Amino acid sequence: MRAALGALLALAAPPYAAAASHPPREYLDEETAATVTVVDEPLVFAFARRDLAANARDYVTLAPAAVNRMGTVSYVLIAYFWSTIDPRLREDTPAAATQVTLLADDRQIELHPKGSSAHEAGIGMAVHAPPGMDAHPEAYATDLSVIRFLAESRHLALRMDTGNTVLDYELWEDRRPALRDFVRHMNGED
């Protein structure tokens, strides 16, 4: 009887009751004097490196952020290009991107660098840096409508052109709910 009642209550719960909340983080960056709002959980893309080992992968972490400098807000995607592959097993270093493209449903969204560094874009502190890695953050200019499109897309992937080859990264850690919460927050809907 109790099990049946519990199942009935679970079915009667509103759909949003089960949804986890991912409010963005906001802080004053002491190095740049900008107010930074960053997604709670970043997207992570992976490229399988079966040529090196069965479960070897290179990764790209992508975190949307808003940078507010005295009332002027700009949006960026902070990217980290990293790998967990033992450097002794590699003949190359993790590929440096000359062109990064997000593949979202039927759109190809080319990412363009915002200045020469994340610091120049207004982010001096590490934002969702991969744990235990010495990865350098890159900042790509974007806007809120692109972040909204990414959050609502059914399929996401990342294509990286290294100049020598094109690598297709698949979505490894899907954190689109956190992107949706970021968009709602920036629209003043929370």
Question: In words, what does this structure look like?
Answer:
This protein is α+β, with helices and mostly antiparallel strands. The chain has one domain. The protein contains 3 helices and 10 strands. It has an 8-stranded antiparallel β-barrel with strand order 3-4-5-8-7-6-9-10. A hairpin with a 4-residue loop joins β9 (156-161) and β10 (166-173). The relative contact order is 0.22. Mean pLDDT is 84; it is low at 1-18.
In short:
This protein has helices at residues 2-12, 144-152, 176-186; strands at 25-28, 35-38, 43-48, 57-69, 72-83, 99-104, 107-113, 138-142, 156-161, 166-173. The chain contains 3 helices and 10 strands, in the order αββββββββαββα.
Q: Notable features of this structure?
A:
190 residues; disordered N terminus
* Number of separate structural domains: 1
Radius of gyration (Å): 19 Å
Could you spell the SSE succession in H and E letters? HEEEEEEEEHEEH
Overall mean pLDDT score?
84
Q: Give the biggest beta sheet.
A: 8 strands, antiparallel, barrel
Query: Helix coverage percent of residues?
Result: 10-25%
Largest sheet strand order:
3-4-5-8-7-6-9-10
Structural class: alpha+beta
The best one-word shape is globular
Low-confidence stretches: 1-18
Question: What secondary-structure arrangement, pairings included, does this model have?
Answer:
Elements: H1 2-12, E1 25-28, E2 35-38, E3 43-48, E4 57-69, E5 72-83, E6 99-104, E7 107-113, E8 138-142, H2 144-152, E9 156-161, E10 166-173, H3 176-186
Helix pairs in contact: 2-3
